[in-house]
Design goal:
The complex is a heterodimer. By secondary structure, chain A is an alpha+beta fold. Helix content of chain A is 15%, strand content 33%. Chain B is of the alpha+beta class. Among the domains of chain B are: 25-72 and 285-380, DNA Excision Repair, Uvrb, Chain A (Irregular); 173-236, 434 Repressor (Amino-terminal Domain) (Orthogonal Bundle); 418-479, 2-Layer Sandwich (Dna Ligase, domain 1), CATH 3.30.1490.180; 570-697, Orthogonal Bundle (Enzyme I, Chain A, domain 2), CATH 1.10.274; 703-863, RNA polymerase Rpb1 funnel domain (Topoisomerase I, Chain A, domain 4, Orthogonal Bundle), CATH 1.10.132.30; 894-968, no CATH class. In chain B, a hairpin with a 5-residue loop joins strand 6 (293-294) and strand 7. The chains are: A alpha+beta, B alpha+beta. The A-B interface holds A 26, 28-31, 33-37, 59, 61, 63-64, 67-70, 72, 74 and B 124-127, 890, 892, 894, 897-904, 906-908, 910, 958-959, 961-963.
């Protein structure tokens, strides 16, 4: 199997610690379920993620160098 | 006027038949509408208790008159239950997933629980839960026996639109034959000796006597016996039996479904019960929803809905009569089906598989669904889009003397469209003058409103008298006058610049006049285009339009972040002529050029002519329009470098890249660095100066401007001839089978490509030859170079050679078998047989060339037609998908449920129109911050104090910063 996370076009996905998740949810004043979603089976999802986890994605951006998004892991 | 109530929420559900009866104003039993005297019949379809449509009559239910009475529902008691067509899919789903005996959902409690959890989860995630429902039904359908009562379940067959069958496996009629033949020895198989009845009896455990009875057809083996026989003989003894489920059966079935179970199927038992999907009582819409019209000859014409209701009542009555008379089951069933048909078409007349109910004339009736559906339906036609007052539409024409912020409004329009004026002590005299001028004079007034709310029409007769009565606190609806703000729009409204606010300039004649520089945002021209104007009716709307929607505020387009308004066409030719080669002008000429601008003094002359008279240069005059501190350097589309230093054009030609719409550097910089007002002034003045310049030089184009000398023509012919030769060579190589194919292409394709290449080169070289013979003063060249209009390719085609015509990107290959036209040999691969036009437009095309040219031209036309319709639909879908996304105050983009779509708008949180379009100089934040700080504070001390202070978070929205609860704990008051 190809490890897509090594591909140049796949941005960096990291699993967020529960503490960091709370911090982020606080910052945006958002419920967990109102985050964008990612499937647990997504090839780019980091190893060992469980439903309900939050993944942080850091993308390269043309205008701001890097852009950060968060996604909620769903089934 | 009634004020609209605020809608907090909308809930959808089913209605209890009892509620229908409760809200019903009357039961409807007669199919007749009016009696012979023209009075509505009691308990008929036009019963006065259902509301009034005739003016003067009183509603028997609420007592109000037509206009204020919205009408009241009635009801019809259906003789037998019928299925509501809108719910056929849901009915099928319920039939399939519930037990036919006990009505419970055919899922174990654990499974139910699981699916219910699935439903809540998908709802929390804001996703579509139909998938969960579908899998629940699929799971329930699998069960052969009810997990609760154990009753066997049968498959449900749905025959569209409204018939349901239970498919049962029953013992086949020819069961004895089937058993007998299975007992016979198989002729092809020697080992198979058949089976004697006694063996069969032993194997199945059925008594021999019984077996014999079965074989003779005297006894029907059902249940276990059948299964044993099937197993022993390896034979299928069943056949499918379709048992029709009548609506009453379904209703009884659904009544047994417990409330807990329907939750799993996505139905809220507080708002809907499954049995309510089977109608037992039909609501009759109020007459106001189906008004009848009186024709000229005094005859009444009823609404389509009324016609349909008449049908329903008739059949309903016949059904009842027949049932009471004890008619045979067959007739009852026929009538039942007929009733079902009428109720179905009353709800939806476009059901596939059902012939639509028709009017006597053959026109299909427009029933409930048809009123709501589609472009002209209630939603898209009447609610999302409406016809409005205070609007005008007419042809547009150009007027270069207007500012780009203005619009010329015909006096006739201005007299019709009014603005409300609140009379105060300060504007009293003006208001009185408007009223005194009357409705015919301009600027006059059409209506006045007294403080007691009474509206009076201003007429020619009463205007003098009325004017004296006007006093403060009155309202005067005065005509549009110069300076009023209106909204101007051209369809299709594809981007926000399709609707902009303009200031009114009242003018004679009948067209809207606009400055030509606003053509690009509207995509307008003057070949008969019409545009719409809307007069704003509230002070808030006018203020908002002036601040946000005025044309000058829309100079920068969010589509590409540069200006969309700027010089076009002749303006660009004008500035090109003015600045290219930097011509000299005498004092009179210079003053004449600048006379339409606000410049009223000339700068120091650039120098003196030989005869001692001072002269000014074109660049100098152009520089007069620039702000004094402008510094810019860029390269123009003409090909030279433009240098502007301290507001003086030092070098270069001003053309499309400098002042044009769609990203002219100077306009773009002015709009971003200076102000919208400064750039508006600049665009207006450039347009005026350019018009003066082009008139000074004179600019025209004729057929002789595209002709080239004879020797040039010969050169072109030569170039084309040599291309022909090379094509011929290629063909010969190909026919010899020696052509090497390019990677990934067949030999045929390679040949085509190479020929196309050669012919393309031929046209280009013809163009170059023609180009060499054109002077720089040639108007077509001026237009192409400056970017005003046309390209060098257009010029090539006019003067040199039109070139290869293509259909679908290939040479023309269609027509007859093996050839394009009957003028050529079959399999002729030459250039001229496949649509190469060697003549120029000026020289004229041969008939064959003309035909090929038309083929290529037709493709272009078809393409644009297809493209517009496709992109229109694409845009509609895109807009519907994105319409509820909103950038919040905290920078995130969310939909209406609060789900985040982007954590930062566009990843960078910036608006494209606020970003520098110059890649070299990004935003120098430090510098800007310093500048702001310097301007704001006088001493370093103050600055320090400011920088050291932390502003408490302001709570602009619930999404910005901490939520309300937290905000209160830090003692910050929310400002809403």
């Amino acid at each position: 199997m190809v490890d897509v996370s090594q591909h140049t076009l796949v941005p960096e996905h990291t699993l967020l610690e529960e503490e960091e998740v709370e911090e982020m949810l606080d910052e945006y004043d958002v419920k967990r379920t109102n985050l964008p979603k990612i499937k647990r089976t997504d090839p780019a999802a980091p190893d060992g993620v469980e439903t309900g986890d939050v993944v942080k994605i850091v993308r390269d951006s043309r205008t701001t160098d890097t852009a950060v998004t968060y996604r909620l892991v769903i089934e | 006027m009634q004020t609209p109530k605020e809608i907090g929420a909308i809930q959808f559900g089913l209605m209890d038949p009892e509620t229908y009866r409760d809200m019903s104003a009357t039961k409807v039993i007669t199919a007749d509408t009016y009696d012979d005297d023209g009075y509505p019949i009691d308990m008929g379809l036009m019963d006065p208790r259902l509301g009034v449509i005739d003016p003067g009559l009183q509603c028997r239910t609420c007592g109000s008159h037509s206009g204020s009475c919205n009408g009241h529902f009635g009801h019809i008691e259906l003789a037998a239950p019928v299925i509501h067509v809108g719910f056929t899919k849901l009915i099928r789903r319920l039939l399939r997933s519930t037990c036919r005996e006990c009505g419970r959902l055919s899922l174990t409690d654990e499974e139910s629980e699981e699916f219910r959890d699935g439903l809540t989860r998908t709802e929390e995630l804001g996703e579509d839960w139909t998938d969960v429902l579908k899998s629940a039904v699929r799971q329930a359908r699998k069960a052969n026996n009810c997990p609760h009562c154990g009753a066997p379940q049968h498959d449900i067959k749905h025959e569209k639109p409204t018939t349901y069958y239970e498919v049962q496996d029953v013992l086949a009629g020819d069961y004895s034959e089937r058993i007998a033949s299975a007992m016979q020895p198989d002729e092809d198989d020697e080992d198979d000796a058949g089976m004697a009845p006694s063996t069969l009896a032993d194997q199945t455990g059925i008594e021999l006597q019984r077996v014999n009875q079965i074989l003779s057809g005297e006894f029907r083996p059902v249940g276990d016996d059948r299964k044993k026989l099937e197993k022993a003989l390896d034979v299928d003894l069943t056949e499918e039996d379709m048992n029709k489920l009548m609506p009453s059966d379904i209703r009884d079935w659904f009544e047994d479904i417990p409330n807990e179970d329907i939750v799993t199927l996505g139905i809220d038992p507080n708002r809907a019960r499954p049995e309510w999907m089977i109608l037992t009582v039909l609501p009759v819409p109020p007459v106001t929803a189906r008004p009848s019209i009186t024709l000229d000859n005094g005859q009444r014409s009823e609404d389509d809905l009324t016609h349909k209701l008449v049908d329903i009542i008739r059949i309903n009555q016949r059904f009842m009569e027949n049932r009471e008379a004890g008619a045979p089951q067959l007739i009852i069933e026929d009538l039942w089906e007929l009733l079902q048909y009428h109720v179905t078409t009353f709800i939806d007349n476009e059901i596939s598989g059902t012939p639509p109910a028709r009017h006597r004339s053959g026109r299909p009736l427009k029933t409930l669904s048809q009123r709501l559906k589609g472009k002209e339906g209630r939603f898209r036609g009447s609610l999302s889009g409406k016809r409005v007052n205070f609007s005008a539409r007419t042809v547009i024409s150009p007027d270069p003397t207007l500012s780009l912020n203005e619009v010329g409004v015909p006096e006739r329009v201005a007299r019709e469209m009014t603005q409300t004026m609140n009379v105060t002590e300060r504007n009293l005299e003006r208001a009185q003058q408007y009223v005194r001028n009357g409705p015919e004079g301009h600027p006059g007034a059409n209506y006045v409103k007294r403080p007691d709310g009474r509206r009076l029409k201003v007429t020619e007769k009463n205007c003098e008298e009325l004017a004296d009565k006007v006093e403060p606190a009155w309202e005067v609806n005065r005509h549009l006058i110069d300076g009023d703000i209106v909204i101007f729009n051209r369809q299709p409204s594809l981007h926000r610049m399709s609707i902009m606010a303009h200031e009114v300039v009242v003018m004679p004649y009948k067209t809207f006049r606009l400055n030509t520089v606003v053509c690009p945002p509207y995509n307008a021209d003057f070949d008969g285009d019409e545009m719409n104007m809307h007069a704003l009716q509230t002070e808030e709307a006018r203020a908002e339009a002036r601040v946000l929607m005025r044309v000058q505020e829309q100079i920068l387009s969010p589509r590409f972040g540069q200006n969309i308004i700027g010089a076009i066409q002749d303006h660009i030719s004008g500035t090109y002529l003015l600045t290219n080669g930097n011509p000299h002008f005498s004092e009179t000429q210079a003053l004449d050029l600048l006379r339409a601008t606000s410049i009223d003094t000339l700068p120091e002359p650039a120098g003196e002519e030989e005869d001692g008279r001072p002269y000014w240069t074109g660049r100098q005059l152009f520089s007069e329009l620039l702000p004094d501190d402008l510094n810019l350097e860029f390269s123009s589309s003409t090909g030279d470098d433009v240098v502007i230093r301290d507001g003086q054009l030092v070098e270069g030609t001003i053309d499309e890249d400098a002042v044009g719409a769609f990203g002219g550097e100077v306009v773009d910089t002015l709009a971003k660095v200076y102000s919208k007002t400064r750039s508006r002034v600049f665009i207006n003045e450039v347009a005026s100066l350019a018009m003066r310049a082009i008139m000074h030089f004179g600019f025209s184009i004729g057929i002789d401007d595209e002709s080239i000398p004879e020797e040039a023509n010969e050169q072109v012919d030569e170039a084309i001839q040599s291309a022909y030769d090379r094509v011929q060579e290629l063909i010969e190589i190909y026919e010899a089978g020696e052509l090497e194919s390019l990677p990934g292409r067949t030999v045929d394709e390679t040949l085509e490509m190479k020929i196309m290449q050669q012919l393309g080169k031929a046209r280009d070289s013809a163009g170059e030859i023609a180009d060499d013979h054109f002077t720089d003063e040639n108007p077509a060249v001026v237009m192409a170079r400056s970017g005003a209009r046309g390209s060098m390719l257009n010029l090539t085609q006019m003067a040199g050679c039109v070139g290869q015509q293509a259909v679908r990107g290939e040479r023309i290959n269609r027509g007859y078998e093996g050839r394009t036209l009957s003028h050529y040999q079959r399999e002729d691969l030459s250039a001229e047989a496949h649509g190469f036009v060697e003549n120029s437009y000026r020289g004229g095309l041969t008939p064959r060339e003309f035909f090929f040219h038309a083929m290529g031209g037709r493709e272009g036309l078809v393409d644009t037609a297809v493209r517009t319709s496709k992109s229109g639909y694409l845009q509609r879908r895109l807009i519907n998908a994105l319409s509820e996304l909103e950038a919040q105050y905290d920078g995130t983009v969310r939909d209406t449920s609060g789900t985040i779509v982007q954590f930062e708008f566009g990843e960078d949180g910036t608006s494209p129109v606020k970003v520098s379009s110059n890649e070299k100089d990004g935003i120098d934040v430090e510098n800007i911050a310093d500048r702001v700080m310097d301007a704001e504070f006088t001493s370093d001390e103050e600055k320090e104090r400011f920088l050291g202070r932390r502003e408490p978070p302001t709570n602009l929205s619930e999404y910005a910063g901490p939520g309300l609860d937290k905000a209160q704990s830090t003692e910050v008051e929310s400002d809403d």
